[in-house]
Write a structure and sequence with these properties.
By secondary structure, this protein is mostly helical. 74% of the residues lie in helices and 0% in strands. It contains 3 helices and no strands. The longest helix has 37 residues, at 43-79. InterPro entries: SecE_bac, SecE_sf, Translocase_SecE/Sec61-g.
């Protein structure tokens, strides 16, 4: 499997030719090169990340709801 490097595709500080269209094409080429480097998670990793996120959000939500209820009771006690 061959990967493209800066030496084969051009360096990052390469001056694009063709004005604005050359700049746009260089940008698109660099975006595609970077997207090829992305490592996508496996199904098991994605499942575990999703579960961890849901658990974290549930804990955070419970904390915020608890603080809200505490402040509601504190305000009711203070101004009642």
């Amino acid at each position: 499997m061959s990967t493209s490097t800066a030496s084969t595709r051009g360096s990052a500080d390469e001056k694009p030719k063709g004005g604005i269209f050359g700049t746009i094409l260089l940008f698109i080429r660099q975006v595609i090169d970077e997207l090829r480097k992305v490592v996508r998670p496996t199904r098991d990793e994605l499942t575990s990340y999703t579960i961890a996120l849901i658990v974290f959000l549930a804990i955070l939500m419970a904390y915020v709801v608890g603080l809200d209820q505490l402040l509601v009771h504190l305000v009711d006690w203070t101004f009642a």
